[in-house]
Amino acid sequence: MGRMESRTSSPYDNLYPATCSGTVPSNYWAYNTGGTVTTSVALSFDGKQVAFVQTVSGAAQLVLLKWASGSGVTTPVALTSQASASAYRSCTAPCMYAISFNGGLNDTNSSPYYDFGHDTIYVGDNPTTRGTTSSFLHKFTGVFLGTPAEVVTTGVWPATLGVEIASSPVYDFNNNQVYVADANTLGTPTGGFLYRVDATAGTVITSTRLARGLGFVDAPVVDAANGTVYLYSSDAGINACPPTTGTTNNAVIQMAANFVAGAGAVTTAQISPTNTCSTTIPVYAGDFDNAYLSGGAGHICVCGNIGGNPTLYQVNITAAGALGTVNTGPAITTAGATCSPVTEFENTSTTTDWIFLSVQASAVTGTPISCPAASAA
What we know:
The structure is a single chain. With 377 residues, the protein is mostly beta strands. The protein has three domains: 1-100, no CATH class; 110-280, Beta Barrel (Lipocalin); 286-377, no CATH class. 3% of the residues lie in helices and 34% in strands. It has two helices and 28 strands. The strands form seven sheets. Strands 1, 2, 3, 4 and 8 form a five-stranded mixed beta sheet that branches. It starts with a strand and ends in a 21-residue tail after the last strand.
């Protein structure tokens, strides 16, 4: 587990001490890599290397880092990039290698996704000027095991997306496709699309516009077994937020994994009162409960109702992945605030299915709340 800060990478040891005294969480290593980091890290299979994106002078770099336990704990060690990919492969930890994104764009929202089977990373970027230039999906090969490099093929890689900030991507090994969405940063929606990118050919299939408001700020969620993709939106209306015609709401949006160009949602689940939307507060990803993850019918637990107090919703979902009725759970704040993504974890010793989330302010405290049937904390 780690924490990324501006110019410093610093993971922690002893995260879960048995008591609140004695051994407590502490720094494991810390490095100054020379840039600003705003997204999450990816780990190698053995955990001995990490990959993350940093910004240097307004341009993104993919950084690969070999760490050494105990180094830089008191004062972060300053690292500089190895001179070549081959030099990084043979260097002794701690050491790093930085690969500048082709095209020189920045990345403020897209975390690297590591495909363990092919030793490949996919990551998006930002257009230079919102609504006028494109964002791209980048592909890096040989990242942890081979010779790390970005795949650059004219007209293919990096793959051209839309004109807004790219989300984090997700790779589906079943069909060799990468799924990535984009946000909206302008008053007039220019994003809110889902993109399906062939991981080999780099061809891009684009949905119809699925979201207004903030568009998609979180990564798609892919159910490879059922061939479905889920997205979370603060405004799934047909117009702007608030709508001038029609209706809108916070929503879970389901797409077919093999969607064709211009396709719309297969189904949507409303997780707010009608005409609840936000251009300032995002909806982040929910999570499946254990019943669904075990191969049966179950639920998605998600936080919505951004127009009012954030509320837990439980969306019924069939074993085949189809969205169903929505159960409204409790409000989890006493005032409007942003809530986090939802994470599910089953305690197998008690067969209790827990969900975990947080809010930025005004949290409801006291007895545990539910989603609405599964215990939550």
